[in-house]
Specification:
The complex is a heterodimer of chains A (190) and B (95). Chain A has 190 residues and is mainly alpha-helical. Chain A has a single domain, classed as Ferritin (Up-down Bundle). Chain A contains 8 helices and no strands. In chain A, helix 3 packs antiparallel against helix 7. The mean pLDDT of chain A is 95. By secondary structure, chain B is mainly alpha-helical. Chain B has one domain. Chain B is 59% helix and 0% strand. The two termini of chain B are 31 Å apart. The model of chain B has no long low-confidence stretch (mean pLDDT 91). Classes of the chains: A mainly alpha (190), B mainly alpha (95). The interface between A and B is large, with 38 and 33 residues. The complex binds fe (ii) ion (FE2). The site of fe (ii) ion (FE2) has 7 residues of chain A, from helix 7 and helix 8.
Chain lengths: 190, 95
């Protein structure tokens, strides 16, 4: 069961529309290393985790990623809102605009729709946790690219927050991997 | 009290809630892999108490932060009141 909290995890208050930046950022909404993929990955993999610490971490990080999914959606929404058709044309987001107007749709910046093919749920905790560690690094790298592309502090600030969280998640997954390994070793010799 | 002022106060309280909640989220993840760290656990409980008090204050002034039986509502049903979280914005209209 999930309960919705009527607030963002970190504030998103973007004053100036910028459809081009929306086009860059939307990949973290519905792209391969985005927040939706992250959340679905961890929440699907948690069923096969062998120890309580691992179940808790996948459950809780999977939940936090949903809050990030919402933050990125809010960024795209606010960046697209109030943009004129002229700006949209100039920013080269016409192809997205034609399909979705300025709505928020889970896709990459080039319009590739979200797919579960971005994630795996292997039933092998060691394999899954390695994927999770890589996923956090890829998300961190994407946020760093986005920060380089941004010049508005209203945009950079939440991107920095999201980048920091990936680093913390990576740390926790590393600890879980270690504990799962120890558990599996201990089982072998019994 | 004008509308913009009231809205600023609401935002300030919300930011305070977010800051404390951040501590509880971060400590929660840490405790998931360090369940025997008593110091972290005490901190978690300390911030959780603060968060509960702040949430209560916010909800009394501005309406429910959660639904599905986690918060009471005054009449009329206050859950639908705007702004929604993604509308925490103040725009300079583009066109
Ligand atoms: Fe993450």
């Amino acid at each position: 069961m999930w309960v919705y909290e009527k607030k963002l995890q970190y504030p998103v208050r973007i004053k100036n529309p910028n459809p081009k930046m929306a086009k860059y950022i939307i990949t973290q909404y519905g792209g391969p290393d985005g927040e939706l993929a992250a959340s679905l990955r961890y929440l699907s993999q948690r069923y096969h985790m062998p120890i309580p610490e691992a179940k808790a971490v996948l459950n809780d990080i999977g939940t936090e990623e949903l809050a990030h999914f919402e933050m990125v959606g809010a960024m795209v929404y606010q960046l697209m809102k109030g943009a004129c058709p002229e700006e949209i044309k100039m920013a080269d987001v016409g192809t997205y605009f034609a399909d979705h107007d300025n709505a928020v749709y889970p896709s990459t910046g080039t319009g590739v729709p979200f797919t579960a093919a971005y994630i795996q749920s292997k039933g092998d905790p060691i394999a899954d946790l390695h994927e999770d560690l890589a996923a956090e690094q890829k998300a961190r790298a994407t946020y760093e690219n986005l920060i380089k592309l941004a010049d508005d502090p209203d945009v950079i600030d939440p991107l920095r927050f999201l980048r920091e969280r990936e680093i913390v998640h990576f740390q926790r997954f590393g600890e879980v991997l270690q504990k799962v390994r120890e558990y599996m070793e201990s089982k072998k010799y019994f | 009290m004008n509308h913009a002022h009231a809205d600023n106060e609401r935002r300030e309280l919300l930011d305070q809630i977010r800051a404390i909640e951040f501590m509880t989220i971060d400590l929660n993840l840490y405790l998931d892999t360090h369940p025997n760290d008593r110091r972290a656990l005490n901190e978690y409980n300390y911030y959780t108490r603060q968060l509960q008090a702040l949430r209560k204050e916010y909800e009394m002034r501005y309406g429910p932060l959660t639904n599905f039986g986690y918060s009471l509502s005054q009449y009329p049903w206050a859950w639908i009141n705007e702004p929604w979280p993604w509308e925490e914005d103040h725009y300079m209209e583009g066109c």
